């Protein structure tokens, strides 16, 4: 999750940022630390499988992310 998406989610009174995922583990840890988020995932499939996650924000800018955590997987899990 990009820092801008995390900032928007954390700043919205209607949402709670509960997890962060990124194909680059260090970036995921940095974003999670910045927003005090306990759950950090590398593969998007792990985040999608988390029963405490109700909504997934996709940043599909990178082709690799499309493969790992595409919109179809998120929709099938009922998280979008």
General shape = globular
Q: Could you name the CATH class?
A: Alpha Beta
Sequence of strands across the biggest β-sheet: 1-2
Average of the residue pLDDT scores = 79
* Percent range for β-strand residues: 5-15%
What would you say this structure looks like, in words?
With 80 residues, this protein is mostly helical. The chain has one domain (3-76): Rossmann fold. The chain is 46% helix and 8% strand. The protein is built from five helices and two strands, in the order αβαβααα. The protein has a two-stranded parallel ribbon with strand order 1-2. α2 (25-34) links the parallel β1 and β2 (39-41). The longest helix is centred in the middle third of the chain and has 10 residues, at 25-34. It is globular, with a radius of gyration of 11 Å. The model has no long low-confidence stretch (mean pLDDT 79).
């Amino acid at each position: 999750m990009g820092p801008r998406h995390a900032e928007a989610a954390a700043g919205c009174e209607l949402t709670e940022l509960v997890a962060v995922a990124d194909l680059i583990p260090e970036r995921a840890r940095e974003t999670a630390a910045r927003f005090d988020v306990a759950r950090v995932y590398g593969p998007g499939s792990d985040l999608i499988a988390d029963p405490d996650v109700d909504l997934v924000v996709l940043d599909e800018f990178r082709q690799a992310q499309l493969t790992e955590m595409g919109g179809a997987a998120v929709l099938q899990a009922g998280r979008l």
